[in-house]
Amino acid sequence: MANTNLVIDTNIFIEYLRAKDKRSTILYLIPAGKTLFISAVTLYELYMGATTAEKKQDIKILTEDITILPFNNEVALQASVIYHDLKKTNQLIELGANQIVALGSLCWWGSN
């Protein structure tokens, strides 16, 4: 069975919000049937960058049907374990802090 969960990072939303042709963006091209998630950190970053009421409304519309993964003590611990495991195997380069937080959040969410 294919995994239907997808954690979306800030840069995917930014690409979409800035694009003149939304149909050419990664966010638009995500196949139907995927369950989307974002971390609380991503939501914070999106709103932090929203400098007008219109931009805040765009973010609200884009994220209203997406599950927000929390960032709490358990997630911080899980994210640090993932970070160290990736670092030990030299796989850390491709994942930034936000992606590790999102993975930790998704692990936490899946266990609750």
* Oligomeric composition of the shown chains: single chain
The parts where pLDDT drops under 50 for at least 5 residues are none
Main sheet: strands, sense, barrel: 3 strands, parallel
Strand content: 5-15%
Q: How confident overall, as mean pLDDT?
A: 81
* Spatial extent as radius of gyration: 15 Å
Briefly note the CATH topology name.
Answer: Rossmann fold
Trace the largest sheet across and list its strands: 1-2-3
Summarize the structure.
The protein is mainly alpha-helical and 112 residues long.
Question: Could you explain the architecture of this structure?
Answer:
It is a single chain. This protein has a single domain (5-111), classed as Rossmann fold (3-Layer(aba) Sandwich), CATH 3.40.50.1010. Helices cover 54% and strands 10% of the residues. The protein contains 5 helices and 3 strands; from the N terminus they run βαβααβαα. The protein has helices spanning 10-18, 40-49, 53-63, 73-88, 97-111, and strands at residues 5-7, 35-39, 67-69. The chain has a 3-stranded parallel beta sheet with strand order 1-2-3.
List keywords for this structure.
112 residues, mainly alpha, Rossmann fold, 3-stranded parallel beta sheet, 3 strands, 54% helix, globular
How are the SSEs placed, and which strands pair?
Layout: E1 5-7, H1 10-18, E2 35-39, H2 40-49, H3 53-63, E3 67-69, H4 73-88, H5 97-111
Parallel strand pairs: 1-2, 2-3
